Amino acid sequence: MKHFKLKSVAASVMALALSTSASLAADVTMNLGFGAPEESLYGGFAKIFERLAEEYTGGSVDVKLRCCNQISTEDEAFKAMQLGTVDGFFITANNVSPHWPLMDVTVLPYIFQNKEHLDKVLDGPVGQMMKDKLQADTSVHLLAFGPALYRDFYNSVRPVNTMADMAGLKIRVPKNEVMIATFEAFGANPVPLAWSETPTALQTGTVDGADNGTSFIKDMKFYEFEPHLVILEHFVAFAPLFASDSFMKRLSDEQREQILRAAADASAEFSVQIATATEDVRNWLATEGGMARTDPDRADFIVAAKGVQQKFAAERGQDFVDLVNMIQAAAE
């Protein structure tokens, strides 16, 4: 009888363990969206994350990629994640700023002195502080900043060799105060437009030019009607990977750790893959794409950019000033 009781207890413990394990590893689907085509930089990052997330979770999290605004547009996705109607989305950093103004720090012109400075900030305490504060303020989780890509400028009017050549150009900018102020400081005439309106505005000449991550210029075939490519490296573009609090709460503690690791590892892996891609694409645009490339002297642009940094730091309040100071201190 005693032997039977021990066996019964052991069986109960085993059943409880299996039940607990099953509940911790419950199957979860993550619908992960982005606005660009599947064969874009967003798609490349997403595919690596999908592979690693499913590998790390043993298949208990099924990541389904939804390109091309299938589940939301980039302009609406952040709010949708706050509401819990979208699981995850890649959103260009400047389009996060209307929902969390501190993100504008990352889009300040020439805020990062070089790649080493940028990596030290985003992979260190400052980057983690930004993730924690964004979640506390908005409920949305920033899983990974993603690879850093410089935005390249292009236009249909003339080559740009000095800042004076920017005078009067009608430049599409996102609805972002920092970016608007930057192009005003450069002497251009910024025209705020949603991304969904931009390709048509460029093709019809409503605007003379714009700036995007280099590969986007190729992916969207803007070289077909924008003959002038200008390498300014004035903004660093990020497309961070975000997830809703609703999605993260559907995960077990173990799954949550695995998803965060997958996001970090996907970001690192993809960054290595594209380390030389920017210059390769620029060369393609200037040869097969038929664009005329210029590499202006940046001295005047940098002076103008510092004025924008100081202006926004003063206007945005102490949290913004503190974050700018932390980023600048990381370069020392």
For this entry, give a set of tags.
disordered N terminus, D-Maltodextrin-Binding Protein, domain 2, 5-stranded mixed β-sheet, single chain, 332 residues, alpha/beta, 13 helices
Please give a structural write-up.
Helix 2 links the parallel strand 1 and strand 2. This protein folds into two domains: 161 residues, Bacterial extracellular solute-binding protein, family 7 (D-Maltodextrin-Binding Protein, domain 2, 3-Layer(aba) Sandwich); 140 residues, Bacterial extracellular solute-binding protein, family 7 (D-Maltodextrin-Binding Protein, domain 2, 3-Layer(aba) Sandwich). The N terminus is likely disordered. The chain is built from 13 helices and twelve strands. By secondary structure, it is an alpha/beta fold. The chain starts with a helix and ends with a helix. Helix 2 packs antiparallel against helix 10 and helix 6 runs antiparallel to helix 12. The strands form three sheets. A five-stranded mixed sheet has the order 2-1-3-11-4, sandwiched between helices.
